[in-house]
Amino acid sequence: MNTKKIERRYDILRTLIAIGIALVLALMVIVFISENPLDAMKSFLFGPVSSFRRFANVIELMIPITFTALGICVMYQAAQFNLIGEGVFFFSGAVATWFALNLTLPAGVHAAVVILLSASVGALIALIPAILKVKWKASEVVSSIMMNYVLQLAGIFLLMYYMKDMASGFNASYIIPATAKLPVLIAKTRIHAGLIIVVVMIILVYLFLYKSKWGYEIRMTGENQNFAKYSGIKVNRVILYASLIGGFLAGMGGAIEILGMYTRFQWEKSPGYGWDGMLVAILAKKNPSLVPLSAFFLAYLRIGADVIARTSDVPVEFVSVIQAIVIMFIAAEMFLAGMKHRAITKESRKQLELKEGK
Hints:
This protein is mainly α and 358 residues long. The protein has a domain at 53-291. It is built from 14 helices and no strands. The radius of gyration is 22 Å and the shape is globular.
């Protein structure tokens, strides 16, 4: 077993232990704050699979989170901590609604065109923090966080002044045409065709990052920017197209969420899927193939928290405790570092002994 394999094994182990510790602490919290802790624990742990409809809710929630997580994985692989996914997701949802209302196209084609146009808008928006970094060395973290607020307000402006249905009785757009809606895949649920699209995108992003020249350039830039430069990789160009792809995926997620789950655009605040995608990307260690598992875990927690809030005296916000603990342990570089170092040292000695024996 080489060093890389040992490191990957301990990264997975660290993630699993972090999740385990978080769940144990969450259950301890339930014991202290609930009058019926056993029932509350049961609701939290098994509520999402207690009925087909609730499990369908988990799948429905996975779809938007997976899109933003894939976009963040691409950008993080290039060591670009561009946090624009939150704003792009929201604004692309608003833009998708506007395109859906103003384009007249046949069913199927309508939805495809709206998704591609909205995703392209998201890609161009995500390019802005990257350009600021490449040209003026501006921190992409700061610029993207500031832009998230601008994009949210821009989406609300678009809703209130260009799409609002005055007869609706609340702040909502006109009804999205049926030709632009994504079809439901499973009856009596809201699981829509976005599930098929997201599965395709998981495969494509993985192949792009690990089986293509451009993906190699992204990964090398993320590993060591100076080495990438000396190897002939145009680092600035990599930063730009990594952000472009990340924004495209987040924008696609926003459009698909609106066309698959809603009849009108009615968001007045961000649903938070950009931040959720960041957590999922961290859990997945920036690997697209692990994103579905991480997204399922987070979606399961969210639905479990919703069930426990409706069936017990435990507030839904306690799931934030779990998220915080998981992030803290995964981000802690020294967590299990000693165990990993000993395993690497032991393996190195074993390999050295084998060579000396020969």
